[in-house]
Design goal:
Blueprint lengths: L1 E6 L3 H11 L6 E7 L3 E3 L18 E3 H4 L5 E4 L2 E5 L4 E4 L4 E3 L2 E4 L4 E2 L16 E2 L4 H12 L4 E7 L9 H15 L6 E6 L9 H13 L3 E3 L4 E5 L4 E4 L4 E3 L2 E5 L2 E2 L2 H5 L24 E3 L12 H19 L12 E8 L2 E7 L8 E5 L3 E5 L4 H18 L20
Parallel strand pairs: 1-2, 1-9, 2-5, 9-20, 11-18, 12-13, 12-18, 13-14
Antiparallel strand pairs: 3-4, 6-7, 7-8, 10-19, 15-16, 16-17, 21-22, 23-24
Helix pairs in contact: 1-7
Length: 409
């Protein structure tokens, strides 16, 4: 029996396991390893602090999302030995592989910023990138009566780079609804030189922040949280005071990837940007947030990578040349508050552009502009995620970034 071992049963790990278990030739087994049986719908964490979703709406058992033919092992990963093709688990078990797929994702590291997890942690200093954090923030916002609310991105890369902007937009709408907007100063703090990484989208999103009266502080890389002053400080010495800090903490890859010496300094796996094969080991591939690719760490990215990775695993097994088929395609709905959202679609070479998606002139979704239909598209994605995407089924969109329906900004 040959073993295809997948480390991680999040979005990327689940969808590729379900795709491959239906395609592999006889004599191959698919095994997936994860530390627990809780699969979290991460896009929903954004809505939890504002009372639009409940924690129980976002969690399902991993086993129920995986094909019954997939072997599931619940344990933490201790060490990866690529030379001997062995993974050591934290319960002492050792698993061998013939082909390995790393889908270990990324994790928030608030402990890496001095002062962040100090006396104000989960009181006036919060994050919404974990189920526990988003739930605690929901309780804090219920009791919020005004003051200076600071949304801060510690540094890049992070999961879903637009999520901090979405939080700022939704906070603006939430505070208006509660009659607290005039009593609240909203500040968006980012290490970037604008609202987003891509210039056209950055101008559009920056303009929306300005229209909503959300002050933006750019080029601010967080060095520490000053508890005595109740302020955040950048490496260049600038400070921003807060009454309530909503931070997107530093992110890192898997500690097992880092400690095993197969990742970069942050714990992400060096990956070929087009084939998704490890740049160092021909029997290792990667998908989703676990890679070091220069593209957003988001569920849509894992979905688009899935088609290419599936094809390349089959090619690898059949000893055929790999397909350099992934172009960095990413897209995401950006909640902008008041029942509207924006949609952006881009890849390695092409930044977000205005137009219609997915059908030229028809849409139904509007690119780089707000619409109510975009908002409903984002909400509908939750159903598609649970019932189509993670189950490895096809969604009606190409894995490539297409120019149909787009126009120059």
């Amino acid at each position: 029996m040959k073993e295809l071992l997948i480390l991680g049963a999040g979005t990327g790990g689940s969808l590729i396991a379900n795709k491959l278990v239906r395609s592999l030739p006889d004599g191959w087994r698919v095994t997936v390893v994860d530390r627990d049986d809780k699969h979290i719908y991460q896009p929903g964490l954004l809505f939890l602090p504002f009372g639009d979703l409940r924690p129980e709406d976002l969690v399902r058992p991993r086993r129920k999302l995986l094909d019954p033919s997939v072997r599931v092992v619940l344990a933490g990963i201790d060490r990866i030995d690529p030379e001997n093709k062995v993974v050591a688990l934290d319960d002492g078990t050792q698993l061998t592989w013939d082909l390995l797929i790393v889908s270990t994702g990324t994790r928030v590291r608030p402990d890496q910023t001095p002062g962040m997890t100090g006396r104000y942690w989960r009181q006036d200093v919060h994050e919404f990138y974990t189920l526990e954090g988003a739930t605690a923030l929901a309780h804090r916002l219920e009791g919020f009566t005004g003051g200076r609310l600071v949304v801060d991105v510690a540094d890049m890369p992070i999961k879903c780079p637009v999520a901090p902007l979405e939080f700022a937009f939704l906070a603006d709408a939430y505070l208006q609804k509660r009659g607290l907007r005039d009593k609240t100063e909203l500040v968006f703090v980012t290490p970037l030189d604008g609202a987003f990484t891509k210039p056209v989208a950055s101008r559009a999103l920056g303009g929306m922040l300005e229209q909503r009266g959300i002050h933006t502080v750019t080029n601010f890389s967080l060095s520490d949280v000053l508890e005595d002053e109740k302020a955040i400080q950048s490496y260049d010495g600038r400070k921003v005071d807060f009454d309530l800090l909503v931070s997107v903490p530093l992110h890192g890859g898997s500690s097992a990837v880092h400690d095993s010496g197969i990742g970069d300094d942050m714990g992400f796996l060096p990956t070929d940007k087009h084939t998704l094969q490890s740049r160092d080991y021909d029997h290792i591939f990667a998908i989703g947030d676990a890679t070091d690719l220069p593209i957003s760490k988001a569920g849509a990215v894992a979905h688009f990578q899935g088609d290419v990775l599936h094809d390349n695993v089959m090619r690898w097994i059949e000893e055929r040349p790999l397909w350099a088929g992934y172009d960095g395609h990413a897209n995401c709905f950006i909640e902008t508050g008041h029942g509207k959202a924006m949609l952006i679609d881009f890849n390695y070479e092409t930044e977000p552009l205005p137009g219609k998606f997915p059908l030229p002139g028809i849409g139904p979704f509007t690119l780089l502009a707000e619409s109510e239909l975009n908002h409903w598209g984002k909400l509908a994605f939750k159903w598609a995620y649970w019932n189509v995407l993670v189950r490895g089924d096809d969604l009606p969109m190409d894995h490539r970034m297409l120019m149909y329906g787009k126009r120059s900004a």
